[in-house]
Amino acid sequence: MAMWxxxxxxxxxxxxxxxxxxxxxxxxxxxxxxxxxxxxNRLTSSDLHPTIEGENGVGKTSLVSVVGYRLRRDYEDxxxxxxxxxxxxxxxLTSKDTATALERKVLLAVAAAMINHHDLLKRGGxxxxxxxxxxxxxNSPLLTGGGGGATALGFGGTVTRTVSANTGAGFNEEGLxxxxxxxxxxxxxxSQSGAFxxxxxxxxxxxxxxDARALLESMRDGMLSxxxxxxxxxGARGIVRTSASSPRxxxxxxxxxxxxxxxxxxxxxxxxxxxxxxRLNDSAAAPVGPESFxxxxxxxxxxxxxxxKYSEDFSFWLYDEGHADRGEGAFGxxxxxxxxxxxxxxxxxTDLSGTRAWEVFDALxxxxxxxxxxxxxxxxxxxxxxxxxxxxxxxxANLVQSSTSDEDRRRKTITVTPRGWLVRYxxxxxxxxx
Length: 434
Hints:
This protein has 434 residues and is an alpha/beta fold. The protein has helices spanning 3-7, 23-27, 33-45, 60-76, 99-116, 118-123, 131-138, 173-187, 209-219, 239-244, 264-278, 290-299, 304-320, 328-348, 357-366, 384-396, 418-427, and strands spanning 51-53, 83-86, 142-145, 162-165, 194-200, 229-235, 257-258, 370-371, 400-402, 414-416. The strands form 3 sheets. The chain has a 5-stranded parallel beta sheet with strand order 2-5-6-1-7, sandwiched between helices.
C-alpha cells in the first residue's frame, strides 16, 4: 500500500501544488476572502487587467484558481449572465521567450476553450462559433506527417510522428489572430458579456523589470487589447509593480493587489482544512498537525509553499524510520527535534569566517529577509559595489538568492532562502522572532 493511504489519507495533505480551480480547491482555500473579493470585482467590473504582487510561495496561483472557479460556477448556476471562464493552463515566460510565441499559445488555447465550453456558452445565450467549424479550423494550422492525419492541440486526427506549420490559406500569425479575435468579439461583444481569463504567472522569471516591461509593452496593442480576454498578471519581488508603472501601459493594467502571508490566526486552519478533506477515516494520524505546522511556517518566515514542503519531508522521514505508528501525541515533539537537527546541520555546514557576510545576513534577516542593492547604506556600506562580494558569499552558501534589476534599485531583489531561515533558527538559539 502507498504511504498516505496507509497513514489514513487519500493523498498528501501537504502537497505544494496550487489548489485547483475546482470544488476541492475552494474547500482548501483559507484566509483570502478579502483579496479574493477584490480580484473578482476587478475581473467582472473593469476593463483593466488585474495584477497581483506577492512573494514566491505566498499563494498567488491558488487565489486566481479559486476566484476563477467561483466566477465560472456563478455563470453555470445562472446567477449571472456574465461568462467569466478561466483557461485551463497558466502561461509563463522566461527572458528567452517572445511575445509572438506567447500569443500563439494563447490563441490556440482560446480555440480549444471555444470547443470545451461551447455547450455552456450556448446555453447562456452567447453567440459561439459552430464546434465543427472550430475543430476543422484547429486541424488546419498544423499538418502532421508519418501517417494518421492532421491534428492540433489534441483535437481531430490520430497519433502521428511529425508536425509542421501550415502557413498557407490565411493561417500565418496574422490570420490566426484575426480568426480568434473574430470569435472572441462574436462571443463576448461587450465587457459585461464575459471573457476567457488568461494568467501570466511568475513574471519574475524574466529576471529584470526591464525585460518584463518590454514584454508587456509589446503585448499592449495585441494580447492586452483583445475583446473577450482578461489577463491576470502575477509576480514577485516588485516586478509587477515596476512593470505596470510604464506610461505605455496606462489604461491596460490595474494597480497591483498585494498578497501578503496568511495571518497567524488563520494559518493553523489551512492545514486543519487539508487534513479534514483528505482524511480517509477517524483513525488517521496527521504527521504534522495545525500547531506543528504553524511552527514550521514561522521558522520559514511565513512562506506557505516552503512550510508545506518541509511538512511533507518530515512525513516521509517519519514513515521511512518506522515511526508512523506511534500516534499524533508523539509526532509534535519528534517534529520539533527533527527541524532543530536540520537547522543545526545546516548551520554547521555553513562557514563564513573571515568575512562580513554573517553581519550582512543578520541585518537582512532583521529587515524581514528582503532587500536590494540600493539599501547598501543600511548595511554599513558606502556603495552597492562594496556590498556585492558579501551577497555573493551568502549566495554561494545558499543562504540568499538574488534576482537582478538594472533599472530599479528600490525593488526587492535579494531574499533569504528556506535554508537561510533554518540557519537563522539555529543561530538564534532555536527561538522564533517576536
